[in-house]
Structure to design on (386 residues):
């Protein structure tokens, strides 16, 4: 019976280590318990082990929380980097829009110019709207990770649309020149 | 051996005059004028032109209000989720270090005036606890603010950069002297750069006194 408990205890240790959630200190404590366990075959020791299992479980949960915190921080950085990248084009968008709106005597159709101007305006406004309503999640959780993934996807699409609108406008204005 | 003596001259100059003055950034022109028989060469430095904004109290704020004052300019927007909160934390440090000096100003220009109305700017300044100080939050048409930023405040940075544009959202803090010349651009998201800015403002004050 005692050996069975010991075997289960080992299996749990290996599982925790394999999952990669264990910290350096926790590994040390774990091995200390294990070496003691080989020499002390009485129930009192196992009561002690069971008591400490709660602490180990707590360390495990803490490690899980740290991992998702780290993941959330990385996702947050990726999102903000994307946002900053798109924001760099704000002035360019305003200038192109201004140039298009003040075009006189051009061979380009009115509809095309309106569409170009609308695309630039939409790219600019979509970013402003995003910033005005953006709220970062309060805590690291699976929901937070899903939230960031969706936001990153949106920002990537917006980046693509912004760059495409700028290229479109530049090409038409270049043709005109 | 004789040459070595000349090497000492700049060091002696530094010892005599203290730390060297801050560089003057931006474009410059050389103008030659005549005074009698003598030809005098003047350097004209780029300056920040006259401007007009609306401040967080709903009042008109013009360049006349910072005449003969040293100030720090930055560009931000209230809802900015990335660099602005860090910039504002560092600007608070600048304000704490120099805020009581009536000859020093901070001008924060919003680049989202549609959202950042007078009341939004007032509440924002209130949350930072800087209303009724020399820190002003300014708004004007977006195009106007962008042009002023890129053609005047960031003109020197744009000349030095291989990648045009994007400076308004770069988190820079721009130090302007009493003659409205750009004397330094600092990364407002970096605490060390902010400390350097505080130190340079003090140097500039000594230089101009």
């Amino acid at each position: 019976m005692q050996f069975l408990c010991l075997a289960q205890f080992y299996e749990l240790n290996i599982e925790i280590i394999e999952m990669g959630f264990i910290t350096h200190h926790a590994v040390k404590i774990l091995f200390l318990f294990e070496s003691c366990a080989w020499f002390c075959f009485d129930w009192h020791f196992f009561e002690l082990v069971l008591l400490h299992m709660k602490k180990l479980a707590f360390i495990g949960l803490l490690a899980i929380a740290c991992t998702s915190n780290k993941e959330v921080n990385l996702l947050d950085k990726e999102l903000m980097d994307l946002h900053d990248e798109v924001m760099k084009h704000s002035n360019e968008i305003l200038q192109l829009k201004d140039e298009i709106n003040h075009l006189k005597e051009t061979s380009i159709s009115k509809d095309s110019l309106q569409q170009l101007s609308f695309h630039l305006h939409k790219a600019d406004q979509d970013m402003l709207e995003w910033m005005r309503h953006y709220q970062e999640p309060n805590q690291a959780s699976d929901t937070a990770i899903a939230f960031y993934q969706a936001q990153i996807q949106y920002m990537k699409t917006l980046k693509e649309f912004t760059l495409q609108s700028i290229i479109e406008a530049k090409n038409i204005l270049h043709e005109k020149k | 051996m004789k040459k070595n003596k000349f090497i000492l001259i700049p060091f002696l100059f530094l010892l005599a005059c203290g730390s060297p003055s801050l560089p003057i950034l931006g474009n410059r022109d050389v103008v030659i004028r005549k005074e009698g028989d003598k030809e005098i060469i003047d350097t004209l430095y780029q300056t920040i032109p006259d401007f007009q904004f609306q401040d967080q109290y709903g009042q008109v704020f013009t360049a006349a209000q910072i005449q003969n004052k040293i100030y720090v300019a930055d560009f931000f927007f209230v809802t900015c989720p990335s660099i602005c909160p860090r910039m504002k934390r560092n600007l608070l440090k600048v304000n704490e270090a120099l805020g009581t000096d009536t000859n020093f100003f901070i001008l924060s220009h919003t680049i989202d005036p549609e959202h950042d109305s007078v009341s939004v700017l007032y509440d924002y300044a209130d949350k930072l606890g800087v209303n009724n100080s020399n820190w002003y939050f300014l708004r004007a048409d977006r195009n106007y603010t962008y042009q002023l930023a890129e053609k005047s405040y960031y003109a020197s940075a744009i000349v030095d950069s291989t990648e045009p544009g994007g400076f308004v959202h770069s988190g820079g803090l721009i130090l302007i002297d009493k003659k409205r010349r750009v004397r330094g651009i600092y990364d407002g998201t970096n605490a060390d750069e902010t400390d350097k800015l505080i130190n340079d403002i003090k140097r500039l004050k000594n230089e101009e006194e």
